Amino acid sequence: MQKILFSAAEFCTEFVYVLQPDFDKNLYLFDKKLKTYYSDWSSHTAQMTSYDFFRICKRLREGGTIKDFVIFKAHPIRRSSDPRIHPIDSPINQHEYDRSKHPVKPMHIRLKDVYENIGLLLILKDDFSADDSLKKICRGGKVIYDSRNIKNI
Question: Residue 127: which domain range?
């Protein structure tokens, strides 16, 4: 993933935007006998966590490839009844939960800090308006790390 982000930053002039499934809460969901529909997609080989992205972005920033970066979560999942949530024993490579073809799941569990997506905004130049972009792309989510607020990482 580092090579991909490096190449994207070298090619672009203002920013790089990445949005992918969020894998940070797999253990939390597993403890509840749940998973996201994409947790075990066989073709999704880049199961990056927020810490994985942080380590890569920190290296890119220290090497001068990027100016700053923001890691954020988008599209919250608040309850186990959400169709993006499956029971742990649901088959692999599924999409939205369908009670007519998937195993029974508990529908009443409130979920904490579970999001469908994790995103990155790599800032490549000082005068890029990152805050305006974040308002548009974060969509009900939250910023979990912003290197502009912490200059000595």
Answer: 2-146
